[in-house]
Design brief:
The chain is an alpha+beta fold. The chain has one domain. Helices cover 27% and strands 22% of the residues. A hairpin with a 5-residue loop joins strand 2 and strand 3. The longest helix has 11 residues.
């Protein structure tokens, strides 16, 4: 699972996905697919892609829709999140696949 995979899930499912970094900070992939480290005060001396590889737990925060309150956040394991990233998007987004022949 890569950051690109998390970005796709965050956009398609309209989630914010949070995971802890080894240095005590937290990465948030927002509903626009942007990975951010909110408490970062200076230039990063770490690699998010590498730190993602070691993350075991994630928090999924669904966004509010149509003026309704947002559903509760939930904690998921790496395996559960990997299942979301490998779920076939073709049923919901058939135009996402391109044939380059």
């Amino acid at each position: 699972m890569t950051l690109a995979d998390l970005r796709k899930v965050a956009i398609r499912q309209q989630f914010r996905i949070r995971f802890p970094l080894p240095n005590g900070l937290e990465c948030v992939v927002n509903e626009h697919g942007v990975a951010q480290v909110p408490k970062l005060k200076s230039a990063a001396d770490f690699n998010l892609e590498r730190d993602l590889a070691s993350a075991r737990h994630f928090i999924l925060e669904p966004l509010a829709a149509n003026g309704k309150p947002a559903p509760k956040s939930r904690s998921v394991s790496r395996e559960e999140l990997e299942q979301l990233t490998t779920a076939s998007p073709t049923a919901a987004h058939p135009h996402d696949e391109h044939d380059d022949e």
